[in-house]
């Protein structure tokens, strides 16, 4: 019995040493990445290819090599020891395989930069209908949390979405993780005179449960004569630390030009407008103007809006089959293809959020882009 116990102790020690060596290799090669405690429950991240294509790891795990030149046969004791060591990795491996999408997305996403150098993911999350009973609140909250875990860390909202209900729902999602979220909200055109902008901002901050916004947008244009007052109001909020940056929404080229003529107007960080395969009007003049002035466009309704026509389109379906993803992911990949557009699709479903996130790691071929141009011509015909 004592001999058996010693053998058991010896095998356990060898198993621990082998496992430690395996873990050392994974960490050294940066293929086994620990997450901070604030992130998702699965605390490690690597892809299937990273797990099984590491030669050094394979050598440690054991005689998976069937090369006939390897004459030495392991004893049953050695074989059991190494397989036992490998089994210690299985829980982490299962966790990693469950988060393969997140691992792949995080390794390929190219952020979009605002004029001040702030970088955000090219794919964020909209919230126009959230918090208004279309889906149960807990389902919508979980969808947003899933998006955050998949790298879609920009959340766009507004004080007038559901009379503030969208902001209230988002407050539950960002609680305890505010530093991981790029938060965008909006002020309405009838809230910009006197101290109304400041009061509107404070109301949004209270509903969101935060003390600052990363970006505050003018939701709809005001008359050109009010531009100076609007910019001054934004700058006061920025100086007070209530907002980090400001921008506009639904501005055309003439309005952008007039805005830039106002003192501090060039501080505008973005112009949020409708843009999708089925709505390419901004390519005529606004998109080129924004690119020339290094103002990224934030695209709302990138899946075609409430009609949902794009997600059922046959051309997108054929291309999505080749990429083993959804039609929505192809439509979003097209929208963010330039690296100068941020798309903010809305989804109240975890499944749809996961489908959307694949766009961050989907690169369309020139032939596929040509096919989409033919199916959805731009303002001047095919592009």
Blueprint (SSEs and pairs):
Blueprint: H1 2-28, H2 48-52, H3 55-61, H4 76-87, H5 90-98, H6 100-108, E1 112-113, E2 119-120, H7 137-149, E3 154-156, H8 165-174, E4 182-187, H9 196-208, E5 215-218, H10 227-239, E6 246-249, H11 253-261, E7 271-274, H12 286-292, E8 297-300, H13 314-323, H14 327-335, E9 341-343, H15 350-357, H16 366-375
Parallel strand pairs: 3-4, 4-5, 5-6, 6-7, 7-8, 8-9
Antiparallel strand pairs: 1-2
Helix pairs in contact: 1-3, 1-4, 7-8, 7-15, 13-14
Identify the CATH homologous superfamily of the largest domain.
NADP-dependent oxidoreductase domain
Helix content: 40-55%
What sort of overall outline do the alpha carbons produce when their principal axes are compared?
globular
The CATH level-2 architecture of the largest domain is identified as Alpha-Beta Barrel
Q: Care to count the β-strands? A: 9
Largest sheet: 7 strands, parallel
* End-to-end C-alpha gap: 80 Å
Q: What's the rounded overall pLDDT mean?
A: 80
Strand content: 5-15%
Please report the number of helical segments: 16
What's the Cα radius of gyration? 26 Å
Widest β-sheet, arrangement of strands: 3-4-5-6-7-8-9
Total domain modules: 2
Low-confidence stretches: 1-107
Task: Report the structural category.
Answer: alpha/beta
Tell me the series of helices and strands, N- to C-terminal. Answer: HHHHHHEEHEHEHEHEHEHEHHEHH
CATH topology tier name of the largest domain? TIM Barrel
